[in-house]
């Protein structure tokens, strides 16, 4: 997010506000961002959400939990030799795997080397322990997870997080795919915070919208 005053930046601040309003009665500290299918913009949405929460003064940790096609190291221009997979296999600590970013109050944990068993690692006790440890250090923890309809990772992670944000792409995501993704998340007992509509163009500008609830 290069311009804090751009229409897109303003839309992400609206998304942030709406997310916060979904959890007025309970603390929302961990959230997952996913999509129904690939290439719908979930990683871009994840990064921008992390930025606007950090701009609010909160200590934010973005975890790239897409252990199949990770992108956070490209987005934040950092190396990916040590990351989430190293922590989950006890080859590194939380502190060793977290890296600062150019944005104040925002840290990133990249995926680390791609493992042969992503679902098993994400569903392990180690993942739960990592999140519990991170909660002591950060105000908001945002996880980028693989698409719901492709693999089970997002469903596995949804049990560990306070809520899930589903990203759909205007003109690309089929209605049935979005509905199926929602059903799979609900069957995993996920709390769906809302949906971000990505790539919706109005007056030649790219906007992001948030629809609260289900």
Structure description:
There is one protein chain. The chain is of the alpha/beta class. The chain contains 9 helices and 8 strands. The chain has helices spanning 7-21, 42-55, 72-75, 84-88, 94-97, 118-122, 125-135, 153-158, 175-187, and strands at residues 30-35, 60-64, 98-100, 106-109, 140-144, 163-169, 192-202, 205-212. Helix 1 (7-21) crosses helix 2 (42-55). The chain is globular and about 40 Å long. InterPro entries: Bact_polysacc_biosynth/exp, P-loop_NTPase, Wzc-like_C, YlxH/NBP35. It comes from Metabacillus rhizolycopersici. This is CpsD/CapB family tyrosine-protein kinase. One of its GO terms (molecular function) is kinase activity.
What descriptors fit this protein?
kinase, single chain, alpha/beta, disordered C terminus, globular, 9 helices, Wzc-like_C, 214 residues
